[in-house]
Amino acid sequence: MKVNKILPFDDSLLDCTISNRQLEEIAVEISKRGSVTGLNQVVWALKALTLTDSTTLGGDDTAANVRSLCQRAAFPIPEHVLLELGVEPALLPHIHTAAVCVYPARVADAAAKLKQLNKYNDIPIASVATGFPAGQYGLDSRLNEIQFAIESGATEIDIVINRQLALVGDWRGVYSEVCEMRKACGEKAHLKTILAIGELGNMDNVYKASMACMLAGADFIKTSTGKETVNATLPAGLAMIYAIQEFERRKGILVGLKPAGGVRTVPDAIAWLTLIKETLGTRWLQPNLFRFGASGLLDKIVETVNGYINNPQIGSTKNANAASY
Q: Catalytic positions (predicted)?
C-alpha cells in the first residue's frame, strides 16, 4: 500500500489569504456547467457511485445494519438494470462503492461480510477514529482507537483534527498531532483528515488546516464529519482544491479530496465532480484521489437510474459506457 510521507513543517505553505466571496462566485459558476439530464445524468450518477464511501455512523449501528450496508455497497444496482443501460458485462464487477465507512467497533462486522461476498479485496473498509466527531479526547486514546480499527480490518482511517488548536492558529500543533496519527496508520492504512470546515471560522483557516494535514502525511483531506451544522460546501471545497494544487506544485505529492455531509442528491454530486474536473482535472476522478462521504447519496443514485429505465419519454438506454470506471 502506497501512503504519503510526513514532510517537515513549512510555514511558507500557510501564506494565503482567500476571499470567501470570490470562492463562492467561482464555485457557483463552475458548478452551473455541470447541469446534465437524461442518459448523461445517469452516466455521471454511476461515476459518483464508484466514488462514494457508503457510510453508517449512527449511535444505533448494529452488526445487522453493517452487513446490510456492505451487501448494498457490493451490489448497489441489479446486473439486469446495468445491462439494460448498455454497460459492458466486463465492467459489472467494478460497479460498486469506493469503500464502506463505519465506527471502529463495527469494522470486524464489515470485514466478515465483505469476505463472505468475496469483495474484501475490492472494497476497502474505512473507519472513523480519534474520538469522532468531536475529537475531544487525549491523544493517546485517539491513537489507540486508530490501532484498534486497523487491527480489526480497516485499511482507511478518517481522523478528525483538533479544532481547538486550529481555532487558536496553532498550525504546528495541528501538524504534530496528525503526524502521530500518520505514524499510527503506518503503511497499513490510508489517512483521511477531517477538517470540520463548518467549525474553522473562515476559508483562510480551511486552507491552512489543509496544508498542515498534507505536510503531516495525509492521503486525503476531508471537509466534514457530517455532524456539524455546516458540512461540505463548494466554496470550502475550492479552498481545499487550491491547497492541493499548491501542495502538488511545491512538493510534487498528490493528495485526495473527500467532501462529506451535505452531498445528498445526484445534482449535488455532479456539481462536485464538475468542480474537480475543471480544477484538479480528470485524473482526480478516481477512488484513490476523490471520494464522497455520504449516507443517503446511494439511494438517490439508484432512484436516478431506475427513473431513467422506467421513463418511456427518455431516449435510448444504450451507451452508458461513456462513463470512465
A: 222, 258
Listed residue (165, 104, 166) closest to 131, CA to CA: 104
Quote the CA–CA distance of 292 and 260 in Å, as a whole number. 6
Go through 206-229 and write b for each residue having 16 or more CB atoms within 10 A of its CB, e for each that does not.
Answer: bbbbbbbbbbbbbbbbbbbbbbbe
| Average model confidence (pLDDT) across the chain | 92
Closest CA to 279 of 248, 251, 250, 303: 248
Q: Could you say which DSSP state residue 320 is in? A: G
Q: How does pLDDT run across 43-86, given as a tens digit for each residue?
A: 999 999 999 999 999 999 999 999 999 999 999 999 999 999 99
* Structural domains of the chain ordered from first start: 11-311 (3.20.20.70)
Q: Which residue has the higher pLDDT, 229 or 88?
A: 88
Number of Cβ within 10 Å of residue 107's Cβ equals 25
List, in order, residues 6 or more apart from 125 with CB less than 8 Å away. 99, 100, 101, 102, 107, 110, 111, 114, 153, 154, 155, 156
The length of the chain is: 325
pLDDT category of residue 18 using cuts at 50, 70 and 90: confident
Alpha-carbon gap, residue 45 to 303, rounded angstroms: 10
Cell representation of residue 123 = 472494497
Is 199 a residue whose pLDDT tops 90? yes
Report which of 313, 276, 309 is spatially closest to residue 292, judged by C-alpha positions.
276
| pTM of this structure | 0.93
- Active-site amino acid positions: 222, 258
Of 234, 278, 276, nearest in space to 255 by CA: 276
Handedness of CA 288, 290, 294, 299 (dihedral sign): negative
